[in-house]
């Protein structure tokens, strides 16, 4: 089922999400909806709180990005256990339609998470998938990409966003 994607400044986007205790069919149903909603919106990542669900779940699909190794995963209770390097990229966000903000991230991350069957997995993401992971990880902590830029850059992005909102 395609769910509504909540837009900034919805308060749930500023609230850290809760750990998933039991991975059951209900959780797998949420993951299915998250993939469907993400594809419908032509996104490459989605965090559960973006569709109003207060749980530490994200989905990523970077297979359309040809220059990086494809990643298509659901991550439950993800943790970043190692990080290195730095990379700048102009990011978009489904909760900020039309807005692009350049953000600096780690270029390589090692991640521990549960899969949709409750099994613990370790992944290494590099380049674009690493950027998407960190963007979604921020969502789960109640942080948006706007919180990653300061001063003038942030003010200009906010102005542009409110203009875009008025056009809609
Ligand atoms: Zn986002």
Report on the architecture of this protein.
The chain is of the alpha+beta class. The protein has one domain: Peptide deformylase (Peptide Deformylase), CATH 3.90.45.10. The protein is 27% helix and 27% strand. The chain contains 3 helices and 7 strands, in the order H-E-E-E-E-E-E-E-H-H. The strands form 2 sheets. The protein has a 5-stranded antiparallel sheet, with helices on both faces. The structure holds zinc ion.
Summarize the structure.
With 168 residues, the chain is of the alpha+beta class.
CATH topology: Peptide Deformylase
N-to-C CA distance: 24 Å
Q: Enumerate how many helices there are, as a single number.
A: 3
Q: State which percent range the strand residues make up.
A: 25-35%
Shape: globular
- Heterogens: zinc ion
Residues in helices, as a percent range? 25-40%
Number of domains: 1
Report the CATH architecture. Alpha-Beta Complex
Strand order of the largest sheet: 1-2-3-6-7
Average predicted local confidence, pLDDT: 96
Question: Using DSSP, what is the number of strands?
Answer: 7
Radius of gyration: 15 Å
Structural class: alpha+beta
CATH superfamily heading: Peptide deformylase
Question: What are the secondary-structure elements, in order, as H or E?
Answer: HEEEEEEEHH
Low-confidence stretches: none
Features:
5-stranded antiparallel β-sheet, alpha+beta, Peptide Deformylase, binds zinc ion, 7 strands, 168 residues, 3 helices, globular
